[in-house]
Amino acid sequence: MVGVGTFKGPGELGELLLQSGLLEPCAAREAYHMAIGRLPGMADTATLVAVTQRFQEHHRFDPLLVDIVTHEGFAHRREE
To answer: How many domains does the chain have?
Structure first.
């Protein structure tokens, strides 16, 4: 994996991604993207930072999804 390292199998890939610090922001961003039904924009930055920080604490997807839909930024839909 360019810029991260080499791996054999899914276990080593998972470890590389966790150690790289790239997994949590990517997973949180993509989950948020799917939840809001559009690409996140600048107005979503504070929400993404908050849910990413929480995801980095627990590394579980079920609380990540709850954090997304219960965050204040999710409740206020912006017009496009």
So the answer is: 1
- Domain membership of residue 65 as a residue range: 22-75
Find out whether 33 and 40 touch, Cβ atoms under 8 Å. Answer: yes
Q: What is the dihedral of CA 19, 21, 23, 28, to 10 degrees?
A: 150
Whole-model pTM: value is 0.77
For residue 56, being part of any structural domain is answered with yes
Asked whether residue 42 is domain-assigned, the answer is: yes
**pLDDT tens figures, 32-72:** 999 988 999 998 999 999 999 999 998 899 999 999 999 88
